[in-house]
Design a protein that fits this description.
3 helices, Jelly Rolls, alpha+beta, 200 residues, single chain, five-stranded antiparallel β-sheet
């Protein structure tokens, strides 16, 4: 453990610095006063104030250092707690956009990580589907687990083996058949995945 690295955040605090400077300055003055053998007049008010300052002022400085250190400790503890809370708050870990033809399973491309999107158990799969006509039921296949997406937009929870990447595949139910000269209906799906830190 590097003691200087541990103490660095405390030494930057102005309250601690003021108390430390006061403590060292008065301690040095007290020692210098004693070394010279100076003895103030016992009945002089100025001498009594000087003696009181030299004898007890450095103690006050030490108390300021201790109080500042305690307050700084509370600040650092609160910051660490906030960071820890932030680490467990779900955030966007991936996003993508898929074009679906009815009846064809389509891997979801990952716009954040590149390649095909993968999901992890516990994450939330957010989706928003658009189409020129009625939107057919859409399946999400996360590995071996298949679930029907509820409506045209929303979120579903991913289930499966822990810490194992699950390929994300979408399938719009229905047939690709269309009237002569017409393209089959296409469905566009915007995808956002929310979760905490993924396994490395």
């Amino acid at each position: 453990m590097n003691i200087f690295a541990e103490a660095a955040p405390y030494l930057k605090d102005p309250v601690i610095l003021i108390g430390l400077v006061m403590f060292l300055a008065l301690l040095a003055a007290r020692q210098l006063f004693k070394a010279r053998g100076a003895r103030p007049h016992p009945h002089s008010s100025g001498s009594r104030v000087l003696a009181l300052t030299l004898n007890h002022g450095f103690v006050v400085g030490l108390l300021i250092v201790a109080a500042g250190g305690y307050l700084k400790y509370l600040d650092l503890r609160d910051i660490a707690a906030a960071v820890q809370r932030g680490a467990s708050v779900p955030r966007e870990v991936d996003f993508g956009f898929a074009e679906l033809d009815p009846g064809l399973a389509v891997p979801v491309p990952s716009y954040k990580n590149g390649g095909a999107m993968v999901l992890y158990s516990g994450e939330e799969f957010g989706f928003h589907a658009l189409a020129d006509g009625p939107i057919p039921p859409i399946e999400l296949r996360a590995g071996d687990h298949v679930q029907l997406l509820p409506g045209s937009n929303g979120k579903v929870k991913i289930t499966g083996p822990l810490n194992q990447p699950l390929p994300a595949v979408l399938l719009a139910r229905g047939s690709r058949t269309s009237l002569p000269g017409e393209a089959p209906p296409r469905i566009s799906v915007k995808v956002q995945v929310f979760g905490v830190a993924r396994p490395k």
